[in-house]
Target: Aromatic hydrocarbon degradation protein
Amino acid sequence: MEAMKQFVKILLAIAVVTGGSVEAFGQSFGIELQNTVMPASGGMGGASIARPQDLTSAINANPASLTQFQGTQFLFGGGWVEPTITMDQQGNIPAMGTPLVSPFQGKSTAPGTPLGNIGVTQDFRELGMPVTLGIGFVTTAGGFVDYRNIPESNGTNSEMTIFNLPIMLGVDVTDKLSVGAGMSLGIAFFDAPFVGAGGMTTDYALRGTLGANYDLNACNTLGLYYQTEQSFQFDNGLLINPGPGQTAYDVRMDLPQNVGFGFANTALMGGDLLLAVDVTYKMWDEAAMFDAMYNNQWVVQIGGQYSLGKYRLRAGYTWAENPIDNSPGGTVGGVPLADLRSVRYTQGLLAVTSQHRISGGIGIVDVLPGVDFDLMAGGMLKDSEQLGDFTTTSIQSYWLAAGITWRFGRGACCQRIPAPDSWSSF
Model:
């Protein structure tokens, strides 16, 4: 019986940590944001593989599209995500013996979460090199979950945050073909105060990206990119019964491999209407920790932008396949779990199940000479999920983001957004 209790404690510690990312980013795919809160692309549902409308989207996804940004550009962006997550737990955990978690129903009281996305691009055409460098700081995942106001939850709460520092390079191979590659250094902060010793555990991990863009003609562009896994290992991430005789566990967590394909078109309305579609395949089955909870996932992002003088009007829709695995595994992050009821409880804290998201935004070119402003808002429609016989979750959210882009030097613009170097009327 003591062994069973220890396994359940391990389970719950992992559950509250991984659940933290869901509370913060309720619009995510699994736990990844995938450009949905970028200041311009976010207003288009995150569609940005072939012709991104802000430089941080290029840095964070397809590096080949960096060549569309000329001169020197700097973007400072931020956002706010406000999810509403509820859980209805109808059975004791564990199923046998003294329960560590009793039946409860309630809403997580964790607050919304701010996030930042910052980037700079520099092209080297003046030096005779068809190369563009992009460097950024990107919020990838993270946040809080908190059911401590419900005694029956036995204090379920935690925090996790992941940032990435990508360095990407795009090269124009021909007038129509560009390629790109780069590496991201990720840092993850992991805190599991529910059991054991409280304290932050950190780890660093690398993630590689390859991409390509091809202009079929003046109006149609294809884009493709691949991202490797980003593998974190939190040494002594869990301490059970701290003190003499304590048990320490290393916890593994991977962000998944991603393969994305994008198409963009500007043939309509005299070139003033940009239509973009991205399709991404996320390989959760091969990602540590999430392989026990998720299936591989398809994501479709559709967006449009209409140019009206110096204004850019944007709208987007996203469909994301429900990733929840109906046959969850018994090991999470390399740590063995207890009974199926406990596994379903963990899965419920990770259940970003809604398939439908909408967004809209506006951009203003040259609000000051060489300065652009972008604003977007989005929402994820409410969805409920029954997990086994005893756990039900519900999730919905909204988010806001804005960004300012400074362009330095003549020609500093995105090829798709005319942006003069001095005041003018459109």
Observations:
- DSSP finds three helices and 19 strands in the chain.
